[in-house]
Specification:
Elements (H helix, E strand, L loop, with lengths): L5 H10 L14 E4 L9 H15 L4 E5 L1 E5 L6 E6 L2 E2 L5 H11 E2 L6 E6 L6 E8 L10 E2 L3 E2 L2 E2 L6 E6 L2 E4 L2 H32 L8 H16 L1
Parallel strand pairs: 1-2
Antiparallel strand pairs: 2-8, 3-4, 5-8, 6-9, 7-8, 9-12, 10-11, 12-13
Helix pairs in contact: 2-3, 4-5
Length: 230
């Protein structure tokens, strides 16, 4: 048994050989879902979809493949694709899925691709495919703008943050979110402090030269220091 990467999953989908998914392990870049995994008519179903998509965006990207059954793997902390639960074309609306993800997840996931892919053996049935490409670190974290608790949507002042942990999409606790934000703000603050200290040193030590005026020399050194610090 193996955990497929993005390339392996893309090859299976391109060939339409959905039976090739059977026996594969779910993992960091692959999540198998049954046909009825997301009830998009409910707040909780829309939240689950957004949680799973954003967790891939916060990691290294991945595929949500809807139309597969899965079972717990013995001696492994993950699940294995156990069979097919193919989805008829008319039962999968790509625009509905992509619209919910765009509405619930902020910022928007770049390159998000939602499609229905037919099976080679039965072109009337296939799988729903949600591809979350790897995202720029500068765009992370991706947060869920609408959070559901006990089946009810909470006010927009509340947001959620999920990450991919092995084969699971795991929501962060309030303590973990605060710690992550605090760490990020500390990093930015420290970088700005270093730049400020270096600029002060430049101003104090800068002397005019024959080749450059004082202002030109200072500008060039400031730009150089900023580039070194970013």
């Amino acid at each position: 048994m193996q955990t497929p990467n993005l390339e392996v999953i893309a090859e299976i989908l391109h060939a339409g050989r959905m039976d090739a998914f059977v026996g594969l392990l779910e993992g960091q870049q692959f999540d198998a879902k049954e046909a009825a995994a997301y009830d998009l008519t409910t707040a909780s179903g829309r939240y689950e979809l957004s949680k799973d998509a954003s967790s891939f965006a916060n990691a290294s990207g991945g595929y949500l493949v809807i139309g597969l059954t899965h079972a717990k793997s013995e001696n492994l902390a993950t699940e294995t694709v156990s069979g097919l639960d193919l989805v008829p074309r008319e039962s999968f609306n790509p625009g509905r899925y992509s619209g919910i993800i765009a509405e619930y997840v902020h910022p928007r996931i770049a390159g998000l691709d939602v499609a229905w892919t037919p099976s080679q053996t039965d072109p009337r049935s296939g799988v729903g495919v949600i591809l979350v490409p790897p995202q720029r670190d500068d765009d992370k974290p991706f947060v869920i703008a609408r959070v559901v608790e006990d089946g009810a949507a909470l006010k927009h002042i509340v947001f959620g943050l999920a990450r991919r942990k092995g084969a699971d999409s795991v929501p962060l606790t309030a303590v973990e979110i605060q710690g992550a934000l605090r760490k990020g703000m500390d990093t930015i603050s420290q970088r700005l402090s270093r730049i400020e200290a270096k600029l002060d040193a430049v101003v104090r030590s800068s002397e005019p030269t024959l080749e450059l005026t004082r202002d030109e020399q200072l500008r060039k050194r400031i730009l150089s220091l900023i580039q070194e610090s970013t």
